[in-house]
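Posting for a labmate who doesn't have an account.
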Amino acid sequence: MSSHAPEKELDPTPLVNAILEKTKAGKLKWQETANEYVFIASVGGNTTLKVRYNPEGPDILSLLNENGKLIWEITDPMLPIDELFTSARRIALRVDERVEALMETLEKL
């Protein structure tokens, strides 16, 4: 195992954009957690994505390994992590389905 430091900083931009794109396309199955401000999605069986609303600063995207250990935490306010949080919450809470059902109920009143 190598002990040397990486030569350059890892750019989170392509990763965040890809996660957001796959989320919007319905490819990632976001789920609720016990914390209403945290949503998770498993990717490939060995990585879990965790997106968390942060009222004191930028939202946080964390990558966890298969044992739940933190691999990487992304907090860059220039990245669309807030949009990712909103999309993940919408999927996990099935907002679209619930609104559609509510509309159907309202139409019958």
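Reply:
Got it, the structure tokens are right above this. The beta strands are 31-32, 38-43, 47-52, 60-65, 70-74.
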